[in-house]
Protein backbone atom coordinates (compact mmCIF):
# COMPACT_ATOMS: atom_id res chain seq x y z
CA UNK A 1 0.00 0.00 0.00
CA UNK A 2 1.31 3.43 -1.01
CA UNK A 3 -0.55 5.86 1.24
CA UNK A 4 1.73 8.20 3.14
CA UNK A 5 0.03 9.10 6.39
CA UNK A 6 1.51 12.57 6.40
CA UNK A 7 -0.32 13.32 3.18
CA UNK A 8 -3.57 11.66 4.17
CA UNK A 9 -6.30 14.18 4.90
CA UNK A 10 -9.10 14.09 7.47
CA UNK A 11 -12.17 14.49 5.29
CA UNK A 12 -15.17 12.83 6.86
CA UNK A 13 -15.95 12.78 10.57
CA UNK A 14 -13.15 10.96 12.36
CA UNK A 15 -11.91 9.31 9.18
CA UNK A 16 -8.51 9.78 7.55
CA UNK A 17 -8.80 9.24 3.80
CA UNK A 18 -6.10 9.18 1.13
CA UNK A 19 -6.00 11.93 -1.46
CA UNK A 20 -6.14 11.06 -5.14
CA UNK A 21 -5.46 13.46 -7.99
CA UNK A 22 -6.90 12.87 -11.47
CA UNK A 23 -4.81 14.91 -13.95
CA UNK A 24 -6.11 15.58 -17.47
CA UNK A 25 -5.92 18.22 -20.17
CA UNK A 26 -7.64 17.34 -23.45
CA UNK A 27 -11.19 16.57 -24.58
CA UNK A 28 -10.89 12.77 -24.76
CA UNK A 29 -9.17 12.55 -21.37
CA UNK A 30 -11.90 14.72 -19.83
CA UNK A 31 -14.65 12.51 -21.29
CA UNK A 32 -13.01 9.31 -20.12
CA UNK A 33 -12.05 10.71 -16.71
CA UNK A 34 -15.50 12.23 -15.96
CA UNK A 35 -17.22 9.01 -14.82
CA UNK A 36 -14.17 8.18 -12.70
CA UNK A 37 -14.13 11.62 -11.07
CA UNK A 38 -17.82 11.25 -10.25
CA UNK A 39 -17.27 7.78 -8.78
CA UNK A 40 -14.37 9.09 -6.67
CA UNK A 41 -16.43 12.03 -5.42
CA UNK A 42 -19.26 9.67 -4.51
CA UNK A 43 -16.94 7.38 -2.57
CA UNK A 44 -16.18 8.34 1.03
CA UNK A 45 -12.82 6.54 0.81
CA UNK A 46 -10.95 9.35 -0.95
CA UNK A 47 -10.30 13.05 -1.10
CA UNK A 48 -10.43 13.68 -4.87
CA UNK A 49 -8.47 16.72 -6.10
CA UNK A 50 -9.08 17.40 -9.79
CA UNK A 51 -6.20 19.01 -11.70
CA UNK A 52 -6.43 20.06 -15.33
CA UNK A 53 -3.45 21.17 -17.40
CA UNK A 54 -5.51 23.12 -19.93
CA UNK A 55 -3.65 21.53 -22.89
CA UNK A 56 -7.03 22.05 -24.57
CA UNK A 57 -9.16 25.01 -23.50
CA UNK A 58 -12.59 25.33 -25.14
CA UNK A 59 -12.73 21.59 -25.90
CA UNK A 60 -11.80 20.72 -22.30
CA UNK A 61 -14.06 23.25 -20.60
CA UNK A 62 -16.98 22.09 -22.77
CA UNK A 63 -16.69 18.56 -21.33
CA UNK A 64 -16.19 19.63 -17.71
CA UNK A 65 -19.22 21.88 -17.97
CA UNK A 66 -21.40 19.07 -19.31
CA UNK A 67 -20.33 16.67 -16.57
CA UNK A 68 -20.46 19.33 -13.83
CA UNK A 69 -16.77 19.03 -12.94
CA UNK A 70 -15.03 22.07 -11.43
CA UNK A 71 -11.25 21.58 -11.34
CA UNK A 72 -9.46 22.32 -8.08
CA UNK A 73 -6.30 23.30 -10.00
CA UNK A 74 -5.90 24.58 -13.56
CA UNK A 75 -2.38 24.93 -15.00
CA UNK A 76 -3.80 26.78 -18.04
CA UNK A 77 -0.87 25.80 -20.29
CA UNK A 78 -2.46 26.14 -23.78
CA UNK A 79 -0.58 28.26 -26.28
CA UNK A 80 -1.64 28.58 -29.93
CA UNK A 81 0.59 26.37 -32.07
CA UNK A 82 2.02 24.68 -28.98
CA UNK A 83 4.80 22.17 -29.59
CA UNK A 84 5.01 18.81 -27.87
CA UNK A 85 7.92 20.13 -25.80
CA UNK A 86 5.83 23.16 -24.74
CA UNK A 87 3.09 20.87 -23.44
CA UNK A 88 5.57 18.56 -21.71
CA UNK A 89 7.64 21.26 -20.01
CA UNK A 90 4.75 23.51 -19.01
CA UNK A 91 2.87 20.55 -17.50
CA UNK A 92 5.83 19.20 -15.56
CA UNK A 93 6.77 22.66 -14.27
CA UNK A 94 3.19 23.39 -13.21
CA UNK A 95 2.75 20.06 -11.44
CA UNK A 96 6.15 20.35 -9.80
CA UNK A 97 5.03 23.54 -8.07
CA UNK A 98 1.67 22.02 -7.16
CA UNK A 99 3.16 18.83 -5.67
CA UNK A 100 5.53 20.93 -3.56
CA UNK A 101 2.45 22.36 -1.79
CA UNK A 102 -0.23 19.70 -2.23
CA UNK A 103 1.16 16.19 -2.61
CA UNK A 104 -1.52 13.58 -3.27
CA UNK A 105 -1.19 9.91 -2.28
CA UNK A 106 -1.64 8.87 -5.92
CA UNK A 107 -2.32 10.47 -9.29
CA UNK A 108 -4.50 9.16 -12.10
CA UNK A 109 -3.58 9.84 -15.71
CA UNK A 110 -5.57 8.70 -18.73
CA UNK A 111 -4.50 7.44 -22.13
CA UNK A 112 -1.70 8.69 -24.32
CA UNK A 113 -1.68 12.46 -24.58
CA UNK A 114 1.35 14.52 -23.65
CA UNK A 115 -0.56 15.79 -20.61
CA UNK A 116 -0.92 12.21 -19.38
CA UNK A 117 2.74 11.28 -19.82
CA UNK A 118 3.95 14.59 -18.37
CA UNK A 119 1.60 14.08 -15.42
CA UNK A 120 2.99 10.59 -14.85
CA UNK A 121 6.60 11.81 -15.04
CA UNK A 122 5.98 14.73 -12.66
CA UNK A 123 4.33 12.40 -10.14
CA UNK A 124 7.07 9.80 -10.49
CA UNK A 125 9.73 12.44 -9.76
CA UNK A 126 7.88 13.23 -6.53
CA UNK A 127 7.57 9.57 -5.51
CA UNK A 128 3.81 9.61 -6.05
CA UNK A 129 2.34 6.34 -7.40
CA UNK A 130 0.80 6.61 -10.86
CA UNK A 131 -2.50 5.00 -11.81
CA UNK A 132 -2.80 4.69 -15.59
CA UNK A 133 -6.31 4.50 -17.01
CA UNK A 134 -6.56 2.97 -20.52
CA UNK A 135 -3.22 1.21 -20.11
CA UNK A 136 -1.68 -1.27 -22.52
CA UNK A 137 -2.92 -0.02 -25.90
CA UNK A 138 -0.24 -0.63 -28.54
CA UNK A 139 -0.19 -0.05 -32.30
CA UNK A 140 3.24 -1.66 -32.58
CA UNK A 141 4.62 1.35 -34.47
CA UNK A 142 6.46 3.91 -32.33
CA UNK A 143 5.72 6.67 -34.87
CA UNK A 144 2.02 5.99 -35.42
CA UNK A 145 0.05 7.43 -33.80
CA UNK A 146 2.66 10.10 -33.09
CA UNK A 147 3.50 10.86 -30.33
CA UNK A 148 0.83 8.77 -28.61
CA UNK A 149 2.40 5.31 -29.01
CA UNK A 150 5.60 6.54 -27.34
CA UNK A 151 3.61 8.37 -24.66
CA UNK A 152 1.79 5.16 -23.70
CA UNK A 153 4.97 3.14 -23.50
CA UNK A 154 6.76 5.75 -21.39
CA UNK A 155 3.81 6.00 -18.99
CA UNK A 156 3.67 2.21 -18.61
CA UNK A 157 7.30 2.17 -17.41
CA UNK A 158 6.53 4.35 -14.38
CA UNK A 159 2.99 3.21 -13.55
CA UNK A 160 2.10 1.49 -10.26
CA UNK A 161 -1.42 0.37 -11.24
CA UNK A 162 -2.27 -0.38 -14.88
CA UNK A 163 -6.00 -0.22 -15.66
CA UNK A 164 -6.31 -2.04 -18.97
CA UNK A 165 -9.57 -1.60 -20.87
CA UNK A 166 -9.58 -5.06 -22.49
CA UNK A 167 -7.88 -8.45 -22.22
CA UNK A 168 -5.89 -7.52 -25.37
CA UNK A 169 -4.38 -4.48 -23.66
CA UNK A 170 -3.69 -6.61 -20.56
CA UNK A 171 -1.84 -9.13 -22.77
CA UNK A 172 0.27 -6.30 -24.26
CA UNK A 173 1.35 -5.25 -20.79
CA UNK A 174 2.15 -8.81 -19.70
CA UNK A 175 4.24 -9.25 -22.86
CA UNK A 176 6.27 -6.19 -21.83
CA UNK A 177 6.97 -7.65 -18.39
CA UNK A 178 4.37 -5.86 -16.27
CA UNK A 179 3.45 -8.04 -13.30
CA UNK A 180 -0.09 -9.42 -13.52
CA UNK A 181 -0.91 -8.34 -9.96
CA UNK A 182 -0.43 -4.70 -11.07
CA UNK A 183 -3.01 -4.95 -13.90
CA UNK A 184 -6.79 -4.78 -13.63
CA UNK A 185 -9.06 -5.12 -16.70
CA UNK A 186 -11.76 -2.49 -16.22
CA UNK A 187 -13.35 -1.88 -19.63
CA UNK A 188 -13.03 1.61 -21.07
CA UNK A 189 -14.67 4.42 -19.13
CA UNK A 190 -15.65 6.03 -22.45
CA UNK A 191 -18.49 3.49 -22.53
CA UNK A 192 -19.60 4.65 -19.05
CA UNK A 193 -19.63 8.24 -20.38
CA UNK A 194 -21.47 7.22 -23.55
CA UNK A 195 -24.16 5.26 -21.69
CA UNK A 196 -24.92 8.23 -19.44
CA UNK A 197 -25.39 10.68 -22.32
CA UNK A 198 -26.47 9.00 -25.54
CA UNK A 199 -30.12 8.39 -24.68
CA UNK A 200 -30.73 11.90 -23.38
CA UNK A 201 -31.67 13.33 -26.80
CA UNK A 202 -29.80 16.53 -25.96
CA UNK A 203 -30.98 19.31 -28.33
CA UNK A 204 -28.49 20.58 -30.91
CA UNK A 205 -27.34 24.16 -30.37
CA UNK A 206 -26.98 24.58 -34.14
CA UNK A 207 -30.50 24.74 -35.72
CA UNK A 208 -29.16 23.18 -38.96
CA UNK A 209 -28.42 19.98 -37.04
CA UNK A 210 -31.88 19.88 -35.44
CA UNK A 211 -33.41 20.25 -38.94
CA UNK A 212 -31.14 17.51 -40.24
CA UNK A 213 -32.17 15.19 -37.40
CA UNK A 214 -35.83 15.78 -38.26
CA UNK A 215 -35.24 15.22 -42.00
CA UNK A 216 -34.16 11.60 -41.70
CA UNK A 217 -31.47 12.11 -44.38
CA UNK A 218 -28.45 9.79 -44.34
CA UNK A 219 -25.52 11.27 -42.43
CA UNK A 220 -21.81 10.68 -42.87
CA UNK A 221 -20.22 11.88 -39.60
CA UNK A 222 -16.56 12.85 -39.96
CA UNK A 223 -13.87 13.79 -37.43
CA UNK A 224 -10.17 14.25 -38.05
CA UNK A 225 -7.25 15.66 -36.08
CA UNK A 226 -4.32 13.19 -35.90
CA UNK A 227 -0.94 14.90 -35.90
CA UNK A 228 0.60 12.34 -38.32
CA UNK A 229 -2.25 12.99 -40.82
CA UNK A 230 -1.82 16.77 -40.84
CA UNK A 231 -0.67 18.35 -44.11
CA UNK A 232 -1.00 16.44 -47.42
CA UNK A 233 -2.97 13.52 -46.01
CA UNK A 234 -5.56 15.85 -44.46
CA UNK A 235 -5.85 17.90 -47.64
CA UNK A 236 -6.61 14.58 -49.37
CA UNK A 237 -9.35 13.90 -46.81
CA UNK A 238 -10.90 17.30 -47.67
CA UNK A 239 -10.82 16.49 -51.41
CA UNK A 240 -12.32 13.04 -50.80
CA UNK A 241 -15.19 14.56 -48.80
CA UNK A 242 -15.86 17.10 -51.56
CA UNK A 243 -16.06 14.29 -54.13
CA UNK A 244 -18.40 12.25 -51.92
CA UNK A 245 -20.63 15.31 -51.38
CA UNK A 246 -20.87 15.85 -55.18
CA UNK A 247 -21.50 12.18 -55.98
CA UNK A 248 -24.14 11.66 -53.24
CA UNK A 249 -26.43 14.70 -53.14
CA UNK A 250 -28.91 12.94 -50.80
CA UNK A 251 -26.21 12.34 -48.22
CA UNK A 252 -25.30 15.01 -45.64
CA UNK A 253 -21.72 15.17 -44.39
CA UNK A 254 -21.41 16.53 -40.84
CA UNK A 255 -17.92 17.62 -39.81
CA UNK A 256 -17.46 19.03 -36.30
CA UNK A 257 -14.07 20.67 -36.87
CA UNK A 258 -11.28 20.26 -34.31
CA UNK A 259 -10.10 23.59 -32.88
CA UNK A 260 -6.59 23.12 -34.27
CA UNK A 261 -6.16 25.74 -37.05
CA UNK A 262 -3.74 23.40 -38.85
CA UNK A 263 -6.56 20.87 -39.25
CA UNK A 264 -9.08 23.48 -40.41
CA UNK A 265 -6.69 24.98 -42.98
CA UNK A 266 -6.08 21.54 -44.50
CA UNK A 267 -9.61 20.09 -44.64
CA UNK A 268 -12.09 22.94 -44.96
CA UNK A 269 -11.13 24.79 -48.19
CA UNK A 270 -12.23 21.88 -50.44
CA UNK A 271 -15.67 21.87 -48.76
CA UNK A 272 -16.57 25.53 -49.25
CA UNK A 273 -19.90 26.06 -51.00
CA UNK A 274 -21.04 22.42 -50.72
CA UNK A 275 -24.71 22.54 -49.76
CA UNK A 276 -24.74 19.02 -48.30
CA UNK A 277 -21.75 19.54 -46.01
CA UNK A 278 -22.28 20.97 -42.52
CA UNK A 279 -19.11 22.11 -40.77
CA UNK A 280 -19.60 22.93 -37.09
CA UNK A 281 -17.54 23.92 -34.07
CA UNK A 282 -16.66 20.96 -31.81
CA UNK A 283 -19.97 19.59 -30.56
CA UNK A 284 -20.58 19.33 -26.84
CA UNK A 285 -20.27 15.66 -25.90
CA UNK A 286 -24.01 15.11 -25.45
CA UNK A 287 -24.70 16.59 -28.90
CA UNK A 288 -21.89 14.60 -30.47
CA UNK A 289 -23.13 11.27 -29.09
CA UNK A 290 -26.62 12.09 -30.35
CA UNK A 291 -25.17 12.82 -33.80
CA UNK A 292 -23.27 9.53 -33.59
CA UNK A 293 -26.51 7.70 -32.92
CA UNK A 294 -28.12 9.42 -35.94
CA UNK A 295 -25.21 8.77 -38.31
CA UNK A 296 -25.37 6.17 -41.08
CA UNK A 297 -21.56 5.88 -41.43
CA UNK A 298 -18.67 7.25 -39.36
CA UNK A 299 -15.37 8.32 -40.94
CA UNK A 300 -12.72 9.20 -38.38
CA UNK A 301 -9.13 9.09 -37.19
CA UNK A 302 -10.20 9.49 -33.55
CA UNK A 303 -9.43 6.93 -30.87
CA UNK A 304 -12.50 7.61 -28.74
CA UNK A 305 -14.93 7.62 -31.66
CA UNK A 306 -13.56 4.21 -32.73
CA UNK A 307 -14.55 2.92 -29.30
CA UNK A 308 -17.99 4.53 -29.07
CA UNK A 309 -19.44 3.96 -32.55
CA UNK A 310 -19.29 0.12 -32.45
CA UNK A 311 -21.57 -0.04 -29.41
CA UNK A 312 -24.15 1.96 -31.40
CA UNK A 313 -23.86 -0.43 -34.37
CA UNK A 314 -22.36 2.18 -36.70
CA UNK A 315 -19.92 1.14 -39.44
CA UNK A 316 -16.65 2.98 -38.82
CA UNK A 317 -14.03 3.73 -41.48
CA UNK A 318 -10.79 4.64 -39.71
CA UNK A 319 -8.41 6.93 -41.58
CA UNK A 320 -5.28 5.29 -40.24
CA UNK A 321 -2.91 2.54 -41.36
CA UNK A 322 -2.92 0.78 -37.97
CA UNK A 323 -4.81 0.83 -34.71
CA UNK A 324 -4.15 0.16 -31.05
CA UNK A 325 -7.84 -0.75 -30.82
CA UNK A 326 -8.03 -4.04 -32.77
CA UNK A 327 -11.10 -5.40 -30.98
CA UNK A 328 -13.77 -3.73 -33.17
CA UNK A 329 -11.76 -4.49 -36.33
CA UNK A 330 -11.87 -8.17 -35.37
CA UNK A 331 -15.61 -7.82 -34.63
CA UNK A 332 -16.08 -6.44 -38.17
CA UNK A 333 -17.54 -3.02 -37.26
CA UNK A 334 -14.35 -1.03 -37.92
CA UNK A 335 -12.26 -1.06 -41.11
CA UNK A 336 -8.85 0.59 -41.39
CA UNK A 337 -8.72 2.48 -44.69
CA UNK A 338 -5.78 4.90 -44.33
CA UNK A 339 -5.88 8.42 -45.75
CA UNK A 340 -5.61 7.82 -49.49
CA UNK A 341 -8.19 10.06 -51.22
CA UNK A 342 -9.27 7.38 -53.72
CA UNK A 343 -9.63 4.73 -51.02
CA UNK A 344 -11.80 6.99 -48.82
CA UNK A 345 -14.15 7.70 -51.75
CA UNK A 346 -14.34 4.00 -52.70
CA UNK A 347 -14.98 2.73 -49.16
CA UNK A 348 -17.71 5.29 -48.40
CA UNK A 349 -19.34 4.54 -51.77
CA UNK A 350 -19.26 0.81 -51.00
CA UNK A 351 -20.98 1.27 -47.65
CA UNK A 352 -23.60 3.55 -49.19
CA UNK A 353 -24.39 1.36 -52.17
CA UNK A 354 -23.74 -2.24 -51.12
CA UNK A 355 -26.41 -3.14 -48.52
CA UNK A 356 -24.89 -6.55 -47.79
CA UNK A 357 -21.54 -4.95 -46.98
CA UNK A 358 -23.28 -2.27 -44.87
CA UNK A 359 -25.25 -4.88 -42.89
CA UNK A 360 -22.09 -6.89 -42.25
CA UNK A 361 -20.45 -3.88 -40.63
CA UNK A 362 -23.49 -2.38 -38.88
CA UNK A 363 -23.40 -4.74 -35.92
CA UNK A 364 -23.69 -3.45 -32.39
CA UNK A 365 -20.74 -4.85 -30.44
CA UNK A 366 -19.31 -3.83 -27.08
CA UNK A 367 -15.69 -4.98 -27.00
CA UNK A 368 -14.59 -1.88 -25.09
CA UNK A 369 -16.76 -1.85 -22.02
CA UNK A 370 -20.01 -2.55 -20.19
CA UNK A 371 -20.47 0.79 -18.42
CA UNK A 372 -18.82 -0.34 -15.16
CA UNK A 373 -15.23 0.77 -15.80
CA UNK A 374 -15.31 3.62 -13.29
CA UNK A 375 -16.63 1.32 -10.54
CA UNK A 376 -13.79 -1.15 -11.18
CA UNK A 377 -11.29 1.71 -11.37
CA UNK A 378 -12.27 3.11 -7.98
CA UNK A 379 -12.16 -0.37 -6.39
CA UNK A 380 -8.69 -1.02 -7.84
CA UNK A 381 -7.41 2.32 -6.56
CA UNK A 382 -8.90 1.61 -3.14
CA UNK A 383 -6.90 -1.62 -3.08
CA UNK A 384 -3.71 0.19 -4.15
CA UNK A 385 -4.17 2.67 -1.32
CA UNK A 386 -5.11 0.04 1.25
CA UNK A 387 -8.74 1.06 1.77
CA UNK A 388 -10.61 -1.60 -0.24
CA UNK A 389 -10.43 -4.45 -2.76
CA UNK A 390 -10.68 -4.81 -6.52
CA UNK A 391 -13.87 -6.32 -7.92
CA UNK A 392 -14.70 -8.58 -10.90
CA UNK A 393 -12.88 -7.59 -14.08
CA UNK A 394 -14.38 -6.68 -17.46
CA UNK A 395 -14.86 -9.70 -19.68
CA UNK A 396 -13.74 -12.12 -16.97
CA UNK A 397 -15.78 -14.04 -14.44
CA UNK A 398 -14.08 -14.03 -11.07
CA UNK A 399 -15.42 -16.08 -8.20
CA UNK A 400 -15.37 -14.18 -4.92
C1 LIG B 1 -4.19 16.32 -28.56
C2 LIG B 1 -3.41 15.05 -28.19
C3 LIG B 1 -3.96 13.86 -28.95
C4 LIG B 1 -5.45 13.74 -28.78
C5 LIG B 1 -6.12 15.06 -29.14
C6 LIG B 1 -7.60 15.00 -28.87
C7 LIG B 1 -1.02 15.23 -27.67
C8 LIG B 1 0.34 15.32 -28.21
N1 LIG B 1 -2.01 15.21 -28.56
O1 LIG B 1 -3.90 16.59 -29.92
O2 LIG B 1 -3.32 12.68 -28.47
O3 LIG B 1 -5.92 12.71 -29.63
O4 LIG B 1 -5.57 16.11 -28.35
O5 LIG B 1 -8.29 16.01 -29.55
O6 LIG B 1 -1.22 15.21 -26.47
N2 LIG B 1 -6.73 24.18 -29.73
C9 LIG B 1 -7.48 25.24 -29.28
N3 LIG B 1 -8.44 25.00 -28.34
C10 LIG B 1 -8.69 23.77 -27.85
C11 LIG B 1 -7.94 22.70 -28.31
C12 LIG B 1 -6.95 22.91 -29.25
O7 LIG B 1 -7.31 26.37 -29.71
O8 LIG B 1 -9.60 23.63 -26.99
C13 LIG B 1 -5.71 24.41 -30.79
C14 LIG B 1 -4.46 25.18 -30.32
O9 LIG B 1 -4.07 26.01 -31.34
C15 LIG B 1 -3.44 24.06 -30.13
C16 LIG B 1 -3.84 23.10 -31.23
O10 LIG B 1 -5.26 23.15 -31.27
O11 LIG B 1 -2.12 24.55 -30.28
C17 LIG B 1 -3.40 21.67 -31.04
O12 LIG B 1 -3.75 21.20 -29.74
P1 LIG B 1 -2.84 20.05 -29.05
O13 LIG B 1 -3.43 19.67 -27.75
O14 LIG B 1 -1.40 20.46 -29.07
O15 LIG B 1 -2.92 18.85 -30.07
P2 LIG B 1 -4.17 18.01 -30.58
O16 LIG B 1 -3.97 17.77 -32.02
O17 LIG B 1 -5.42 18.61 -30.10
N1 LIG C 1 -16.25 14.37 -29.46
C1 LIG C 1 -17.05 15.41 -28.99
N2 LIG C 1 -17.38 16.43 -29.85
C2 LIG C 1 -16.95 16.47 -31.13
C3 LIG C 1 -16.12 15.41 -31.60
C4 LIG C 1 -15.79 14.38 -30.73
O1 LIG C 1 -17.46 15.41 -27.83
O2 LIG C 1 -17.28 17.41 -31.86
C5 LIG C 1 -15.87 13.28 -28.53
C6 LIG C 1 -16.08 11.87 -29.01
O3 LIG C 1 -17.37 11.40 -28.67
C7 LIG C 1 -14.99 11.11 -28.29
C8 LIG C 1 -13.90 12.13 -28.08
O4 LIG C 1 -14.48 13.39 -28.34
O5 LIG C 1 -15.40 10.66 -27.02
C9 LIG C 1 -12.74 11.90 -29.01
O6 LIG C 1 -11.87 13.00 -28.98
P1 LIG C 1 -10.78 13.22 -30.07
O7 LIG C 1 -11.20 12.59 -31.35
O8 LIG C 1 -10.49 14.68 -30.07
O9 LIG C 1 -9.49 12.50 -29.46
P2 LIG C 1 -8.96 10.98 -29.49
O10 LIG C 1 -10.01 10.09 -28.95
O11 LIG C 1 -8.57 10.66 -30.90
O12 LIG C 1 -7.74 11.04 -28.63
TrEMBL record:
Gene Ontology molecular function terms on file: UDP-N-acetylglucosamine 2-epimerase activity
UDP-N-acetylglucosamine 2-epimerase domain ranges (all copies): 39-381
InterPro entries found in the cross-reference section: UDP_GlcNAc_Epimerase_2_dom (IPR003331), WecB-like (IPR029767)
Alphabetized SUPFAM superfamilies for the sequence: UDP-Glycosyltransferase/glycogen phosphorylase
EC number: 5.1.3.14
Keywords in alphabetical order: Isomerase
Gene3D superfamilies from the UniProt entry: Glycogen Phosphorylase B (3.40.50.2000)
NCBIfam families, alphabetized: wecB
Similarity comment text for this entry: Belongs to the UDP-N-acetylglucosamine 2-epimerase family.
Name recorded for this polypeptide: UDP-N-acetylglucosamine 2-epimerase (non-hydrolyzing)
Source organism per UniProt: Arthrobacter bambusae
Amino acid sequence: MYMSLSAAKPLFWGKIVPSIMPIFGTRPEAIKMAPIVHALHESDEFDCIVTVTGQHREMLDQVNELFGITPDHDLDILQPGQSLSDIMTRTITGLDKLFAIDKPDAVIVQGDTTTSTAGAIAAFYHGIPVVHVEAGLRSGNLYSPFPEEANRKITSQITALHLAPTSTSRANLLAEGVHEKDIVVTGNSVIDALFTTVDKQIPFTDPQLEQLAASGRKILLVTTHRRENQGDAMRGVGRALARIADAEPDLVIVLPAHKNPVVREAVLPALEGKSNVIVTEPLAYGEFTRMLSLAHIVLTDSGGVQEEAPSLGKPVLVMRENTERPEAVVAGTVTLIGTDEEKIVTEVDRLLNDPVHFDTMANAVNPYGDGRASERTVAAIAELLGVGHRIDEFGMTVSV
